[in-house]
Amino acid sequence: MALNLKRKRAGDLESRKNPKLDEVMDVNSENEEHGENESAHEDSEDSGSEGEEWNGLGKDVEMQDARNVDPSSSKSKNPAPTGEEVRAIRDATDLYRSSSFKLQIDALLPNVRPKLSRAPPLEKFLLKLHTFLMQLPAVEPQHPLEAARKLLKKGVAVPYCLPLPIEDTNWKVSFEKPEDITLVGSWPNKVSVKAKDGLKYGVDVAVQMPDGLFQEKDYLNARFFQKKAFYLATLANSIRNSKSGLNVDVSYESTAGDPRLTKLVLTPKADGSATDFTKLNARVCIIPTISTSSPISLHRLSPSHANIRVNSGEEGVHHPSPLYNNALLTSYSPKLHLLAMYNHIQSIPAYADALTLLRIWANQRGFGEGSKLSVKGFENAGNLWPALLELVISGEEPSSSGAVNRKPLGKGLSSYQLFKAALSCLAKHDFIKNPALVKSTATHKFPASEYQEHCSATLVDSSSLVNAFAYVPLGCIDMIRHEAWKTLQTLYSSSLAIDPFTDVFLHDHRDVATRFDIVFQVDLSKAKARKLSPHESLDFGSATNHLLYNMNAILRKALGDRIHAVVFLQPSSTSDVPSTRPLTQAYPSTSSTIFVGLVLNPTHAFNLVHLGPAADSEDTAALAEFQELWGSKSEMRRFKDGRIAESVVWDVKTADERSHVPAMVVRHILQWHFGLSEEHVQTWQSAYDSVIRLPKEIATKYVRGAGSAMGFKGAMQAFDRLVKQVKALEGQIPLSLVNISATSESLRYTSAFNPVPLTQSLAASLPPNARYLQPINIVFEFEQSAKWPDELKAIQKIKLAFFEGIATGLMNSVPGTKASVVLGSGDITDANELMDKAYLEIVTPEGWAFHARIWHNREATLLDRILDDHGPMPHVVVPKKRKQAERKGKEYLDAQEAKEVYDRRFIHAPRHHRAVAALSHQYPAFSGTCRLVKRWFASHWFLGGHVSEEVVELLCAQIFVLDGKYVGSDADIPENTLSVVPSTKERGFAMIMRFLSEWKWEEGGLYVCLYGPKKEGEGEGETGAKKVEPKASSGGVWTVATEVDKDGKVWTKGGPDGIVARRVRALAGATWSYLQTIENGTFNVQGMFIHPTQDYDFVIQLNPFVLPRYVHNIAANEGLLGKGKFANARAKDQDQDIVLPGFDPAKSLFTDLQRTYSDTFRLFADPYGGDAFGAVWDPTLKEPRPFRVLGGFSSVPVKKESEKAKDKGLVALNDAGVLGEIERLGSGLIKAVVKQR
To answer: Which residues belong to any copy of the Nrap protein domain (predicted)?
Structure first.
């Protein structure tokens, strides 16, 4: 078996490093804070001391070396694999997914466990602590308040819990030395795992309090917890005394913020003594416990028992206290858990490694401690993971309800198989509806029915009676099930684009921006539950815990099937609110801020109506419950199908607002049940919306002035009307129109701004810098006919005749329509007569503009003849020299350019449009994600000039289509699959930013399954394995392939080049880092779209008054969009044609400068109303070089170093001259040219 492999060459391999190890330490946790300056000798000791635990790597590496040896070589030192080794390889593949996966696990485990070479000081300290505690003097019984006052004078507060003792209390507290001191938890079993964010290892010490300190009735009204608190405070007072000689800082810490679960934390001081264990990065936690032989009877601690007897207003009625009882049971459990874990480790070889893998997985997803946002309820759930593994291995106790119980898997599985089985159990078992009691040799003391009746969720191990899910909110349990399912999908995935090991164990998945569809920041300082229950508050141990648990349960109920999970997030320890507290502070600190994350179910998330009970329903309790849940929002309504039912209806004005419905639900519930107004509940959806919307004042004018529908719906309706109008001209044009294809982003829902019409009257009411009309590109396809000429130049002329006929027909048949034939392509030199350059510009009476082109498939054949090796006339033999000359001739170069444009414009563009439009209908968040990402690329001066809009859409598509299984399928996408892809544009945007910041395009391209699942072998070798070595002057370095574009260069041939691609990655990384500031409250959405200009050599500032698209500027000055200087005489404007589709002088200037000075500088601009260009000089031009004619750039002679120096005839860039030329070229448009370097 692979587990039993021994290391034959351990000495040779100790110096070897697995390439994944550095990544492990970088991602899994911070670097070691202590011991970085230790000598190499100590490091070698560390590796040697852990060599026995980390077996298997040496032999596997040796076998890999053996496989790489040429068997025919007689000089080979390594023999071929033996039969035993081959069987080990096969076993590793069967038990660990693959042999490489096993090697990665073997390399990971030693790096997340403590270095045992640094443990001796800790062991000496523990011995010293044990000796000290066993010698402590007794304290006579005294009144609890009197005892607390005495200790407070000494600087130690007693952490009494509610209900607090009073003066009339007739019981007393006392102290005696411990009966027993035991090292418990993960440390003695050597399964401790490094925590996130550099937090310390926990070394738990169970101090057993003598039975004589307690009485039989101490389970009532927190008497046990008060005596335990005094015992703990007495220990703290003794240990912190300098006479103790322990030299540690002593503080309190309460598990899950519950004062009843307070423990002592001992942190070492760095004094260099023999007991100084600071290099181990550990802390000692003292946990008071009680023996099973104590006077308190265990049967009094069942979930159904009422052990909090306070005046609740109901005479003689006492409610069960399951959480209180569970907290008391935890005082019995540490030693039981220790022994149970030890037995499992001894009897199950893979148990320790499986438990370690499970904890690593949990830590990477926030189900543990950390200074970043962690899932509420799991910050101290250390006993949950052993219980889960035990449930998988031993199975479940038989249930009286008849439910199917989990069967035991046995003890012979590998660590990876156990880990995967535990995830499967988490994903599939509903711990809320079906309590899970691990099968044990003895019958569980409390039946499952009691847990089901009184506990929200249940998982009880076989060795104790403690419920591991007692403190976890229900929405957070939903989240861990969701994460388990996602991980299983990753492990089962066969896609080579995903490295399962890296994604499961190395990546930090705690960032909220890519994890949740909607994130809220809630200020709890003014929160007050509408219905207060003093008993429940006492049961939870603190008012804050009760409030949060109740809030989560109500939100989960209200959101219903709109969500997969509603999660509460808080860091377990921060500098402002640390998990530990000084001894003078009796109660734990609580943060007034909590984050709420929603994982939406897109199938139901955005429904506008929530139906309740019918009006004639006999279930009056359900009707009252619905009205109580929704308050004023609940109303009786009659629906179109005749039903009359209680319901909740959410009003939205636009399609974009529909994505806010889940946030509306959360805001209403928090307002109705907890009194939190909108100012206390912050979300960032509206801020994201604002960056892809027109300014409010301009948008209002559009709404008033546009007579037809606006937005994507209006554009689609206008397109459909135009199609009908053109097809109605059948008798007026020589050929029948077969099809009209759309190729515009405005018709596939991905344009950054909603498309809007612009009529003459509306334009007159707008300022000149808000009159831009975006044309919509379409393609006409006529029937096949022999009447077409067989010559490229003639075909272009015939197209003009078709355009003229269509224009005349439209203007005659549709009053108010304007149509004109436009020659020239704008951004391509017009000298190429083989290229499709003309288009028909149509402006409808409603104000929509279209640019139509004609696709004739014969053009491709004629262009291929010119580009073919045999030339346009294959039957004529052409000499080789003449053939080479023709390849450099104008006709060949023009044909090459024309063919490229033809393929992109008439073949790929319509096909891409249809695929992207389908995705917009299939995934609700896809459209918004594309719009935000395009806005980001544009605001950082990449879009259009360097990065095409189509490649941005492909980048966004890859996070939605995944493996392409459901692309183009009529089958409904499973909800679990939909939950993996983003359901809101905000989450989609964050995922793209993370991808761009991490994408190593130099090592290989990206394959997007835009047209369906990738066939076997497709994309490999073409994109996946091909490495790019970018040059500064090379073309596009991104390779984004699809099924119809195997090379991945259709949309990236023109850019981005190496310089731009690296800048995209840098800015995406900065944006991704800025997204993390959501946690500290300094996040501002607009800050991600403000472009830094300090890196440019010079900046060209434009006059915003003459920019028709200035209204789209990310930071437009609203004062420049008002009437003021822009107020024109209405009569004069009505006489002039001020609607100019596609007219953008800034874009024209950018294109001219980019073409003219392509060898001089690199130009950047924002196509969406940017009022500045940025440019970077070619650094090689500033270096002196010999003068030559037609050098390609404006140059100036280099000044001689001295008058006597010889003139070498060197020249350098004439930057002042170039800047002057630019200013003259843009006269009237350029306001200033600012030289920054």
So the answer is: 203-346, 351-507, 514-674, 705-921, 923-1090, 1094-1233
What the block records as the tokens of 1096 is 């440019």
Residue ranges of alpha helices (H) inside 728-872 are 760-765, 792-813, 858-867
Helical residues (DSSP H) of 300-438, grouped into ranges: 322-329, 333-347, 351-364, 384-394, 415-428
Residues 6+ apart with CB under 8 A from 534: 310, 312
Query: What is d(CA 301, CA 331) in angstroms, rounded to the nearest whole number?
Result: 12
Amino acid at 287: I
d(CA 977, CA 1117): 44
- Residue-level pLDDT at 89: 62
Three-state SS at 469: coil
Q: Cα(908)–Cα(1007) distance, rounded to whole angstroms? A: 16
pLDDT of residue 787: 86
Instruction: With beta carbons less than 8 A apart as the criterion, state whether 328 and 218 touch.
Output: no
The DSSP result for 804-844, as a single string, is: HHHHHHHHHHSTT-EEEEE---SSS-TT-TTS---EEEEE-
Q: What angle do CA 421, 423, 425 make, to 5 degrees?
A: 70
Q: 1054-1058 long-range CB contacts below 8 Å, 24 or more apart?
A: 1054/948, 1055/945, 1055/946, 1055/947, 1055/948, 1056/942, 1056/946, 1056/947, 1057/946, 1057/1030, 1057/1031, 1057/1032, 1057/1033, 1058/1030, 1058/1031, 1058/1032, 1058/1034
H or E element: which one contains 1212? strand 1210-1213
Tokens of 1165: 């601009």
Residues 6+ away with beta carbon under 8 Å from 968: 918, 1011, 1012
Q: Is 724 exposed, middle or buried (0-12, 13-18, 19+ CB in 10 A)?
A: exposed
The vertex-452 CA angle with 220 and 354, nearest 5°, equals: 100
Q: How far apart are CA 371 and CA 591, in angstroms?
A: 13
Rounded to two decimals, the pTM is 0.87
Task: Report how far residue 905's alpha carbon sits from residue 896's, in angstroms, rounded to the nearest whole number.
Answer: 14
Phi, psi of 322 (to 5 degrees): -65, -40
At 132, give phi and psi (nearest 5°): -65, -45
Q: Which two tokens stand for residue 836?
A: 């499709």
118: exposed, middle or buried (Cβ count in 10 Å: 0-12, 13-18, 19+): buried
Local mean pLDDT, 10-residue blocks, the chain (1237 residues): 36 38 38 39 38 35 40 51 64 64 89 91 94 94 94 94 89 94 94 91 95 92 94 94 88 91 93 90 94 90 89 69 93 92 92 94 92 90 90 82 69 88 92 89 84 91 88 94 91 71 91 94 92 88 92 95 94 82 91 93 92 84 91 89 89 87 96 93 93 90 77 93 92 88 95 93 89 95 89 92 94 93 69 87 94 94 83 57 64 90 94 95 94 97 94 95 79 76 95 94 90 65 46 75 92 91 96 92 91 94 94 88 50 64 93 91 94 93 84 82 67 90 93 91
The candidate with the shortest Cα–Cα distance to 1026, out of 1044, 1043, 1042, 1040, is 1040
Q: In which residue are the tokens 């008391």 written?
A: 328
Q: Which residues contact 518 (CB under 8 A, 6 or more apart)?
A: 597, 598, 600, 662, 663, 666, 683, 685, 984, 986
Beta strands (DSSP E) in 901-960 are: none
Cβ neighbours of 968 (radius 10 Å) = 15
Tens digits of per-residue pLDDT, 50-77? 333 333 333 343 334 434 444 444 444 5
- Alpha-carbon distances, residue 271 vs 131, 245, 372, 663, 1085 (angstroms): 21, 12, 30, 53, 47
Beta carbons of 1160 and 1181 less than 8 angstroms apart: yes
3 state DSSP class of 600: strand
What value does the CA radius of gyration of the chain take, rounded to a whole number of Å? 36
- Torsion angles phi and psi, residue 249, rounded to 5: -85, 135
Q: Which of 415, 461, 411 is nearest to 440 (CA)?
A: 461
